[in-house]
Amino acid sequence: MERLLEHCTLCPRRCGVNRAAGERGCCGAGETVRVARAALHPWEEPCISGSRGSGTVFFSHCTLGCVFCQNAPLSREGAGLEIGTGRLGEIFLELQAQGAHNINLVTPTHYVPQILEAVALARADGLRIPFVYNCGGYELPETVALLDGTVDLWLPDFKYAQSRPAARYSAAADYPERALEAIEAMVRQTGAPRFGPDGLLQKGVLVRHLLLPGQTADARAVVEYLYHTYGDRIWISLMNQYTPFPRLAGRFPELCRRVTKREYHALVDYALELGVENGFIQ
After folding, report:
1. Beta bridge partners of 133
2. 73: part of which helix (H) or strand (E)?
3. What is the DSSP letter of 157?
4. Per-residue pLDDT at 80
């Protein structure tokens, strides 16, 4: 673990700071895991949450800088508690004991080395449920490879097909290229989706896209790429719960409104016209 933190290149920022010596990278994370919340979560896609809920662990800090982030106190301000890898493993086991269908790691990339240690400890003590890697899609294939054999379900975003909105809204002009590489690595690692007899996804990739106001054309490009590239080898979730915040009014007035029904329905209709069947809509 320490080797990966001494020159941190876990995400595409590749800032190279020595987190083991107390330095903090672009994401804001140091050497110790910081967790904001751990609980059963019933509002993921049905094949993730099931009837009892997904055992979500919300990590503090983030490798992206999305101006519209709904969890800014966690991602930007680092709200949460610092815990050791042993305690993290205990949390996984506690969620399993509460009936969680899976362990859902939310925004985990900057803590991959610590997570790997915690998973090994928890599995040695009886953890048996699948792991979900719930991320923003801004990943490196090398980091995806580190998680081979640990992650069962990949749940990445594919936020942008074009670099201009990626740079403006997430400070990551290279987001489209990095997300495409990461999703390819995820699909190659897990293969086609596999469901259990209870209808829960046991293995595979489910890609999410949050529609932003005025970004229907970019959203269509996202769906078109995913479907034409992967077909039924992945599932796609089209989300419409974008929430505007007053803090955006000054620099991002175009984001100071909700997505209209017309915008969202246009995206859904386009996906159906393409032939998308393995998907979720809201």
Report:
1. 105, 154
2. helix 72-75
3. B
4. 95
Q: Could you tell me if 100 and 54 are in contact, meaning their C-beta atoms sit under 8 angstroms apart? A: yes
Helix axes 175-190, 216-230, angle to 10 degrees: 30
- CA angle in degrees (0–180, nearest 5) for 224-227-228: 80
What gap in Å lies between CA 221 and CA 256, rounded to an integer?
23
Q: Within 13 A of 106's CA, how many CA atoms are on the CB side?
A: 18
**Number of neighbouring beta carbons within 10 Å of residue 27:** 25
pLDDT digits (tens, 9 = 90+) for 203-252: 999 999 999 999 999 999 999 999 999 999 999 999 999 999 999 989 99
Contacts of 52 (CB under 8 A, 6+ apart): 40, 99, 100, 101
* DSSP count for the chain of H helices, then E strands: 10, 10
Other C-beta atoms closer than 10 Å to the C-beta of 250 total: 8
Contact present, 57 and 105 (Cβ < 8 Å): yes
Whole-angstrom CA distances from 191 to 153, 183, 194, 205, 249 are: 10, 11, 9, 8, 43
* Nearest partner of 109 among 8, 222, 177, judged by Cα: 8
pLDDT tens digits along 76-108: 888 999 999 999 999 999 999 999 999 999 999
Strand 194-195 and strand 201-210: the pairing is antiparallel
Burial class for 28, CB neighbours closer than 10 Å (0-12, 13-18, 19+): middle
Residue 11: which of 222, 207, 172, 234 has the closest Cα? 172
Do strands 235-239 and 194-195 pair parallel, antiparallel, or not at all (unpaired)?
A: unpaired
Strand partners, 155: 134
Residue pair 156/179 in contact (Cβ under 8 Å)? The answer is yes
